[in-house]
Amino acid sequence: MIYKQLLEEQFQQLHPKLQERYELPIDTEFFARGTMERMTTNERLRPMYMLLTTSKFLFPESGVNIPFTIANRSYKNERNDDTVYWERTFYFPHVTRQFNATMTLDATRNVIQDNLGDPSLFYSDLQLHVTNGGMLLIRSTNQRCLGLPLPKALTGRVTVLEGYDDARDVYTIDVTIYNDLFGRMMTYAGTFTRSTR
Fold it and tell me: Which Pfam families does the entry mention (predicted)?
């Protein structure tokens, strides 16, 4: 619901499968299984990533053809806000990692409020756009850590492009997190299909 509310008339320009994925009425779930064809992290940031694994956020592992699942559950939070909980689970050969988030809508500022991790240590505003090809483009803007605004030099600029490949009948995902000081912090790209638990 929150994504449809934010995009308004743009929502109808999304690929029909993306509309199905992001409509998410309250008390429903989208669950999928897929493979990340590539996942890369920044070795210089490994100590920070190891620390962040405890909050189900970033992690140090890289690899190819990594199985993963994604679950998006919509519900009303304690303030009666429409909320979507994201649970991404990556099955590396020797360890399983999660990258979770809780999202709500700020209709006044026209952004998705993205609380990253579980418990959440980081926060980011997200702007959503629909491309001419019906894909969903997501970009991060303002970010905070432990409630404090992050200076631009310390932010991780997130770009997400999600689409649907009709020929292969799969969702596609491509994510880049970039920092001006450290370069690419994390990238991953892959495909997934809706499934049942």
Answer: DUF4166
Task: Report the candidate in 158, 82, 87, 83 with the shortest Cα–Cα distance to residue 127.
Answer: 158
Report pLDDT digits (tens) over 14-59: 999 999 999 999 999 999 999 999 999 999 999 999 999 999 999 9
Residue 104: partners with Cβ closer than 8 Å, 6 or more residues away: 2, 77, 81, 82, 83, 84, 112, 113
If you average pLDDT over every residue of the chain, what do you get? 96
Domain ranges of the chain: 2-194
Give Cα 162 to chain centroid, integer Å.
10
Per-residue pLDDT, 153: 86
Dihedral of CA 77/22/20/193: which sign? negative
pTM, entire model: 0.95
Q: Does domain 2-194 have CATH number 2.40.128?
A: yes
From 8, 5, 17, 1, select the one nearest 134 (Cα to Cα): 17
Strands, E, within the chain: which ranges? 29-41, 63-76, 82-91, 96-106, 111-117, 120-130, 136-145, 148-149, 157-165, 170-179, 183-194
The three-state DSSP-derived secondary structure of 16-53 is HHHHHHHHCCCCCEEEEEEEEEEEEECHHHHHHHHHHH
Distances (CA, A) of 7 to 13, 111, 165: 10, 10, 22
